[in-house]
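Two proteins, back to back. First:
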Amino acid sequence: MSTPQQPDPLASLSESLSAEYGQQRDAKQARVLGELQRVVERVPVTSEFTNTRRYKRYGPLMVLLSAGLLGWSIHTGSTGLAVFAALMTASFALMTWQHRNAGTHAFMRLTRSQLFVDTLSAPVDLLDVIGIEVKDEGFIMQQQLMLRPETTLPTHRAALQLFGNQAMALRKPRPHIRILSAGLMSQGRKLECDDVYALLEAYCQAAQAQQELDRLQGRR
């Protein structure tokens, strides 16, 4: 006659602890995935940027002022000043004409993984960005993105416009992308340097969060 086998209390405890640990692990991973997803969704899928209308607005005024200087220099017989004033008048007139459509063409675009600029041959991977600087030098806003040393840089072409939108990929003193423009606007709103910095930083964080999200989801 056989004796019924009694359940092993240690085995039951082990199974219970394993199940509890698994639930806690899954809950923790779900929280991490949720936080990463929120970082990604904090920025729009795509943001487009134009330059501002500062030269379209101030250009005609500068033409009038330099033309007035030209007339005064001719009246006083100052040949050197007249030549200078004529060159300034022509330059400001050209600049005004070149910026006649300012604020209408999106020359720069950010996605959750890349930066696109018209004058760059290829997009910049935001995961390669290790530093951001933004400053407005009065006539031009400058954005500078420092990249990892091993980053493959795109090529750039010159923008044939006075104070035009220009992105340059430079190797020295360290790999970086420099973007120059007559200010920056998005959705018709003028952006200050702090706004631009915050957007660039948020998009870089979104790219990093998406990479980590993909890694964790690939392990599930």
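And the second protein:
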Amino acid sequence: MQGRIEQVAASNELSKIVLYRQSPKLDKRSSLKTSSAVTSYPSYLVGRWGGNLKNVWTVNAPNITNQLPQYRVGNIGTVVMHFDKVGSQVKLLPTVIFFPVEEVPVSQSAINTTEIQADSIEAFKKRTLASGILRGVPTLPLAKFSGEGLTGRKFESRILHDSIQVLKPGVVEQDVVIGEWKDGAFFNYREFVSRFTWYGPDKIYAQVLIANFADGRQAISKTLLEGWMSSNWRPVAENIASRLQTTWDEVVRRDGIE
């Protein structure tokens, strides 16, 4: 079975089919794949699904020496995915994958690469600089992101491409490309490919590929996460909330999960 996951894994360049090279914007000229294009997820996915996704594969460009926890092979992220009807269509609502707590000494590399949700930045910066320890729960938002770095730099992202394909009965894949801006200047593309295989009303298999591309469309890193998701999502939500030492309702509010 060939989908966008296989295409990204086999190539080190972001496809021109998705983007015009000179200006980050949606290219509507043609579709990414030859399989069946749709505008909605299947109705059988409606509801919340919870589970763990394991990093099973990561490749980096030679100049990437700092491996973020989100992209470390073997690391396991925990996630609740919510599919809901939006008008006449079924959409995957904003999703965040949460990884185990990390605690490392503050370094220049960590300062340069850490991005924090905007409403929690000041308390986090104060605590980190006072202790000399960078401690927190690494996250991976599967959509656009707005936040700030420890140096005060502003990060913002915008969706450039969003498509859904049915690869075969019971297998659906969404491809989202975002552009990322730092202090108002474009610097990076990021692509998320989410594939879901249906195994009945209580279980699906999820695969999520994350690829980062420089502004010239050359691959910086590619990572594949995968694992089983259950309709019994409440224990998973409680695990995430416990990790963050708060309630699930607060996690939903703070991280923009719906």
